[in-house]
Specification:
This protein is 23% helix and 34% strand. The protein is built from 2 helices and 3 strands; from the N terminus they run βααββ.
Length: 74
């Protein structure tokens, strides 16, 4: 069994398959995620992963990446 990942940085690139997979009323439907993208929050990058087994969608992953600086307090 071969599992593959498809990674997109815009929900519009995968919204049809994404929405078909999720149950009705789910908070991660593409229209909700599109609102986050449209907000264009500085330095926040979004990623949409589709997990496929052969040619069948078996999972979705929504990620946000935000760089931050930190320092150790001694």
């Amino acid at each position: 069994m071969k599992i593959t990942l498809t990674i997109e940085n815009k929900i519009s690139a995968c919204s049809d398959l994404w929405d078909q997979f999720l149950p009705a009323g789910h908070h991660l439907k593409s229209r909700h995620l599109q609102a986050f993208e449209n907000a264009a929050i500085d330095q926040v990058q979004t990623f949409y992963l589709q997990v496929m087994l052969k040619d069948k969608l078996i999972g979705l992953v929504y990620l946000q990446q935000y760089p931050f600086n930190h320092r150790l307090i001694k």
